[in-house]
Amino acid sequence: MALVSEKTEETVEDTKRTIPKSDEEWEAALFLKAEKSSHAQTTFDEETVASEEDEKRKVNPAIQSLSRIASQAFSHGNWDLAESTLERAIKIEPSDGALWRQLSYTHMRAGNYEQALAHAQRSVLLSNDSERQMSAGLLDKILKRIADN
Question: What is the Cα–Cα distance from 32 to 71, expressed in whole angstroms?
Answer without folding.
Answer: 9
